[in-house]
Amino acid sequence: xxxxxxxxxxxxxxxxxxxxTAIRDSNLLSLFEDEIKDxxxxxxxxxxxxxLYELAEHPHSNMFLxxxxxxxxxxxxxxxxxxxxxxxxxxxLISGRLLSSADAFMTIEKSCVTNLLLAIxxxxxxxxxxxxxxxESALETLGLIGTTTQGACLLxxxxxxxxxxxxxxxxxxxxxxxxxxxxxxxxxxCGVDRQEDQMKLDDPQAEExxxxxxxxxxxxxxxxxPSALLLSILQQDPDVRIAGYRVLSGLVVREWCxxxxxxxxxxxGIVTDPKMETTKLGMxxxxxxxxxxxxxxxxSHLLHEPSLSELIGxxxxxxxxxxxxSEKRQRVEAQPVVGTMERF
Length: 344
Prior knowledge:
The chain is mainly α. It has a domain at 230-324. It has helices spanning 2-13, 17-25, 30-37, 42-55, 61-65, 70-79, 85-98, 104-107, 110-125, 132-145, 149-155, 163-170, 176-190, 204-219, 226-234, 238-251, 255-262, 265-271, 280-298, 309-321. α12 (163-170) crosses α13. The longest helix is centred in the C-terminal third of the chain and has 19 residues, at 280-298. The N and C termini lie far apart (84 Å). 42% of the residues are buried.
């Protein structure tokens, strides 16, 4: 009965900001806190978290929920070693949703967010003894937080240095689910989900730390260079390749990454190949990556490098062609066959 009441509150909360305000003023959000604090019944706690997860999806949710002590209780759940991994995973994703907008960081104290990141960091540091789904949820959470410039800067600050897990797992092929989740999270942190003018971070230290993480990951791998590492991602199966396009689209706005990409003609060959992808999602991701590289080059002094003229021509042609058309779209029409009577 209590879970049904919470579900009704969530539906009313999502109806409008007026009903959300009325619910906040009626102190009904404290019911969620009570259910999360009492973790004796795992099924009941999980049901409450599922309802809260739906509630956190609404655009105005963080404005109200972050003014309560909910995030602190969610952090306590993530930190609780006795809690089931599925409960911690759901709590982690709720925190990511709550912190996925720029307004969130104006509402809550930085110390609360730092405590949350330290709790997630603990999960990722002890990954060998943890459930794989929990690792993937933690990585997805970091991706949600990193969609805003404020969140990305916080992930790339030292401490807590938590973005290192995302970069390391992005280029580590051990565990397909973790590999994919990390790549998508890295794309978000690099700015692929942000406005074009906000893709690069305002904080030079955060940008430098991101660069250092990528070069460090490359030097610790058999590929040795970021360009070879990125190429290896694009040479994998379609799902990984789509995630790789996202990462490349976000990273290439940075001059150091653009140089790395231009140093590998094979990367340009993949992103400009209209036959590379067979699904709509793959075609669009490949094309978006192609456009991102082309835009980055057009605003860079590399545009006038004679050695890159052929590469730039391929990019321009691929952008003009669009995401769906193949290189030579030939339509074979039925042809009548004319022959003499003797032939038959």
